[in-house]
UniProtKB/TrEMBL annotation, chains A, B:
Span list, region Disordered: 1-22
Pathways involved: Isoprenoid biosynthesis
SUPFAM superfamilies documented for this protein: Terpenoid synthases
Lineage, top ranks: Bacteria, Bacillati, Actinomycetota, Actinomycetes, Mycobacteriales
Keywords assigned: Magnesium, Metal-binding, Transferase
One term of GO molecular function: prenyltransferase activity
GO BP annotation list: isoprenoid biosynthetic process
UniProt source species: Nocardia bovistercoris
Keyword match Magnesium: yes
Protein name, as recorded: Polyprenyl synthetase family protein
Cofactor: Mg(2+)
PROSITE patterns: POLYPRENYL_SYNTHASE_2
InterPro entries assigned to the protein according to its UniProt record, in alphabetical order: Isoprenoid_synthase_dom_sf, Polyprenyl_synt, Polyprenyl_synt_CS
Length: 396, 396
């Protein structure tokens, strides 16, 4: 299986076709602002991952059927959830991590690696399905969330008991199923037992870290820790380790990479991963809803404890009590468009936006430096440079 | 490591010391009623399993600490949950399954197998913690359930937001952590990669089946399926596969048992597992609260859709409309002691209790017959006979 992970360096990407091709946007790397929505994985790679996921569900159909109609419904809901979208960022980093450590795409081994990479999407399905219960989110990717979906099925069928409790219960179990099946997919991937043994401890750390990040997130919110350090710690575990660092590390483990390359990947992954989240935080306040698909200023309405908002509060407390008061009374409330606009101006005037942009630039530079001096293949380095640009300069 | 799984056959068990020793109760096997609360695993075996679990948590302390104080709290809550009790039934069946297929206790291999068996308790922790959210249970083993515990911590600290939502959220994540750590414990057990490769597909089936059984359970309840077949299907997946059949199968897989022995174990496991649940159903209505630790007649108040109640409804519908009406209007309501007593008499008079007792006897006979003709070692056969008696004739 030869799959171009990304268009790679040198591919013209300023043309509108870059968007339709969905290739990595390297255009932004040298320009002041990104010009097209960047994607981290090529459509060909996305298709390979989705086909591996679909195959996995097809292979389970008989076993699923034996467990009865509700289980068939649950498995189908999970299949749709997994296949309905997502950027396949984590599989893309795992795949390039493997190649950068000498993995050769093509043949049975390449197929096995792609399947193991695709399993990351099932871990992610668990994280999102459970997160949606935790956040009481009603929609995801423009569809009802899993718990809302089953709440509605309960209502439509006139079943006994509390529909919302039923929906949440089914969604808890479907999330558990996704987590269990993620493992099963790794074991059924065709990776040899030695590769699985190298993979397992990294996989273990990744899962613990993302759960730790989620715990930090909800506790930070409830406990009201407004510090920049707290926000950065959440980014470190909930995003960086889980989205970039450990996926690269998993790929390296499959390829039996040496400790130096693993260390370089982890430095790149931590830095680029945090930068990725910081970009996300900026988009959550300043992003164009037409492009991001999320309502404008949503993070402000949610009062999300991002580094951007923590930094703004820190600066306001030090220099501008009026702005501090405005932020504390506004964040997390039902803001109208004018109020969102006003808060944006406050964040910018406080210098918090510049601060976050500087952090992104510094982290990106440090991550790329670690990559550059590593023993990763030249192709992988070029792709990871492009992915760093796509992750940190994207507009959606 | 030489650990007596049970006292084995021939051990005097009618003496009161049998209770304090916690050995398998084989006394009931030949008598009309069990005379002492039976345990499936010896105290020595329980101690080995608990020590393996504790070691696992200790080995994680440094990694846990890095993730911050709330993660330390979460991991500690999970540790206490896992170590606070439980009969260690699943590890016991896995352990004897391994021995029956030629596994030799003692040495590094025995230690590794014990650790892999102990990992079943982490799967069970996930199942129970998530079940308690699903059922809105406030206590488990006389302690607050995990979601109630963290709800209380939220309240005690005067944190922002909804305390109950916070408690449920943390408990969802702690359950996920238990599920992920169960795998990690298998991988860190010291089993060789070939054994883990044989173990993995059975482990996969077991997890899918228990989640399937839980889905059937909540949907059967909501959807009002009153049939005996529906209740049996829940028993098959939620209890039999998960508690007896797959644990034995896991042990067999570690020992690389042949297909015939696996088939015999699975037949024994399915039959004895269902019989175990049917005994549980009888205890849920007729059990002595002093011994079971659960309020008398609790299953009646919950309107739990057991085979016993399904059979009673089926019989009442066919022969006694008055009893049918009484059952339908009473089950799942807040019954007082007299009403519980009256319903017990109705269940007995309808012949439902005898029917369930016959099912238990038939299943036990069939399961033991499969075991008898198998190639399991003589010691394992004797122990599994004793465990079948303990599982199906217990009074708590």
């Amino acid at each position: 299986m030869e799959v171009p992970l990304s268009a790679g360096p040198g591919t013209p990407t300023r043309a509108p076709s870059a968007v339709t091709n969905g290739t990595v946007d390297t255009a932004g790397a040298g320009s002041a602002t990104p010009v097209v929505p960047a994607k981290l994985a090529s459509p060909e790679f996305v298709a390979v991952i989705e086909s591996a996921l679909d195959d996995f569900f097809v292979a389970r159909e008989a076993a699923v059927g034996e467990l009865g109609p509700i289980f068939v419904e649950a498995a189908e809901a999970l299949r749709l959830f997994v296949l309905r979208g997502g950027k396949r960022t984590r599989p893309a980093f795992a795949w390039i991590g493997w190649q950068g450590a000498g993995g050769e795409p093509g043949g049975a081994q390449g197929d096995a690696v792609a399947r193991a990479c695709a399993a990351l999407e099932l871990v992610q399905a668990c994280a999102l399905i459970h997160d949606d219960i935790i956040d009481s989110s009603r929609t995801r990717r423009r569809f009802p969330t899993v718990h809302v979906d089953f709440e509605q099925r309960h209502r439509d069928r006139g079943w006994a008991g509390d529909a919302a409790q039923f929906g949440a219960s089914v969604a808890i179990l479907i999330g558990d199923l996704a987590l269990a099946w993620a493992d099963d997919m790794v074991h059924a991937s065709g990776l040899d037992t030695a590769a699985i043994a190298r993979f397992a401890p990294v996989w273990a750390n990744m899962r613990t870290e993302v759960l730790g990040g989620q715990l930090l997130d909800i506790t930070g919110h409830a406990g009201g820790d407004e510090s920049v350090a707290a926000a950065l710690r959440i980014n470190r575990y909930k995003t960086a380790a889980y989205t970039v660092e450990r996926p690269l590390h998993l790929g390296a483990a499959i390829a039996d990479a040496d400790a130096e390359l693993v260390a370089a990947y982890r430095e790149y992954g931590t830095d680029i991963g945090i930068a990725f989240q910081l970009r996300d935080d900026l988009l959550g306040v300043f992003g164009d809803p037409e492009i991001t698909g999320k309502p404008s200023g949503d993070d402000l309405r949610e009062g999300k404890r991002t580094v951007l908002l923590a930094e703004a509060l820190r600066r306001a407390d030090a220099t501008d009590p009026h702005a501090a008061k405005l932020l504390r009374t506004s964040l997390g409330t039902d803001l109208d468009a004018d109020e969102v606009e006003r808060l944006r101006a406050v964040l910018t005037d406080l210098g918090a936006v510049d601060d976050v942009e500087h952090r992104i630039a510094d982290l990106t530079e440090r991550g790329l430096a670690a990559l550059e001096t590593s023993s990763a293949t030249a192709t992988a380095k070029a792709t990871l440079r492009a992915m760093a640009a796509a992750a940190t300069r994207r507009i959606a």
